[in-house]
Amino acid sequence: MTDYHTFEQAGEHYLFFTRSARLYQISRLAFGMLAEFFPPTCAPEAFPPDPPRPLPAEESSLYDELRDLVTRELRAPVPAPQAQHEILQGNSYQTFSIYLAQTCNMACCYCWNRGGTFGKQGHLMGWDTAQRATRLILSLVERSSADKVFINFYGGEPLLDFPVLQQVTQELLQHEARLEKNFYLTLDTNGTMLDGPAAQFLARYFTQVGVSLDGSQRIHDLQRPGKYGEETWQRIANNIKAFPNQKLLGIRATLTTFSDSYLETFRHLTTLGIKRIQLEYCHEPGYHQNPIYEKLIVPPERQLAELREFVDYYVDYISEYNDTRDVPFVSNVLDNITRIRRGSRFTRPCGAGANTLAINSHGTVFPCIAFVERDEFAMGQVDDSQRLNLHQSLEGFEVDDQHQCQACWLRYDCAGGCYATHYDMTGHPRRPHPEYCQNMQGRAEVYFYALTRMLNKCPWHLEKVHAPV
């Protein structure tokens, strides 16, 4: 197993320990000595008490310090496996995604689920199926150990089925007190229908509304045209500015090879006055094995270079503020940085099918939104709350038991990665693609670098981080 990792970012050198999640900023000399004398796959007993070759007094002392540090850290206990939750009894279901509309009024060039249709006939859930889905959710929540329950309306464009959205919302909320649970309702929308009664309703009952907008008007209208090729940026921007409670809004941009840089996209989005911004690149190479889609993928080297450029700009930018309320923030970057800072260790991935479920517009239940319409992973129908079956490949996963993960220094942060992405890239949910792993590791190094820069220049930003409810 690999239990520590050294790397360089922007001329600085770092040492990260896999088991304890401790991160050290080290000198160039220490960086070189670790590479020469302390192989990360060796047991502490293999480190000789004296240097293998004569060293100057100063370097000999550093050798002793490094040997003691690495020995101590490598003797830290391996994170304990997490308890396996049963689906039918004592469940821990907390997050539900409802594909309210598997159809869309836009034709985005990179849409991973083809407007929610997955290449099939478009379909709205309708009240009959939605009512049965609501009963399933309430039944599972009643037996769940979770106090907070997150319910996301997804698509396609879920506001195409707005009357049903209203009915489901009212039905869920009227059971909140009886179940002694807190429901947090969220919605992902393309923003073209975020006006009138729909905007008023969401502002009153919802916790968070995510709107897709790809930066500048030129780039957005190129990547996210309407169904008939019409421009959509101005309409969405107007809806965002007119939304009754802008604190609920977050903007999500997807970056392709045609996009402006990460930093430039962020700058464009901050002009809209929304504080919560999420920037994501198109999925890893190999996703969906679609040659046209592949041309939209930003090369990993460019992704990392742009992310580093953004981190340097952003840390300098926010260090000038004294109050987080004045600062737009990139939620996915800060989520990763604060998670790293907490040092939580994980031995299993996201919990797809164990604490998350997704329901498509026909009432079929899947482990998560990324598995919807993959028939082999269907868990049952909304009427089958007592007979939901999780695909065997998603059960019993432990990262230290996975051959491909054992030598990875990031394994207790990544915890094996995304089942659905692995399935798309390699044909098996437990077999990550090497490029996926390399990209995860590269981004993690940038996040570690960002964390140290924030701790040095603006630690208050981490103390008051804008976290979701």
Automatic annotation (TrEMBL):
<dbReference type="InterPro" id="IPR023867">
    <property type="entry name" value="Sulphatase_maturase_rSAM"/>
</dbReference>
<dbReference type="InterPro" id="IPR023885">
    <property type="entry name" value="4Fe4S-binding_SPASM_dom"/>
</dbReference>
<dbReference type="GO" id="GO:0051536">
    <property type="term" value="F:iron-sulfur cluster binding"/>
</dbReference>
<keyword id="KW-0949">S-adenosyl-L-methionine</keyword>
<keyword id="KW-0411">Iron-sulfur</keyword>
<dbReference type="GO" id="GO:0016491">
    <property type="term" value="F:oxidoreductase activity"/>
</dbReference>
<dbReference type="InterPro" id="IPR007197">
    <property type="entry name" value="rSAM"/>
</dbReference>
<keyword id="KW-0408">Iron</keyword>
<feature type="domain" description="Radical SAM core">
    <location>
        <begin position="90"/>
        <end position="319"/>
    </location>
</feature>
<dbReference type="GO" id="GO:0046872">
    <property type="term" value="F:metal ion binding"/>
</dbReference>
<dbReference type="InterPro" id="IPR013785">
    <property type="entry name" value="Aldolase_TIM"/>
</dbReference>
<keyword id="KW-0479">Metal-binding</keyword>
<dbReference type="InterPro" id="IPR058240">
    <property type="entry name" value="rSAM_sf"/>
</dbReference>
<dbReference type="Pfam" id="PF04055">
    <property type="entry name" value="Radical_SAM"/>
</dbReference>
<protein>
    <submittedName>
        <fullName>SPASM domain-containing protein</fullName>
    </submittedName>
</protein>
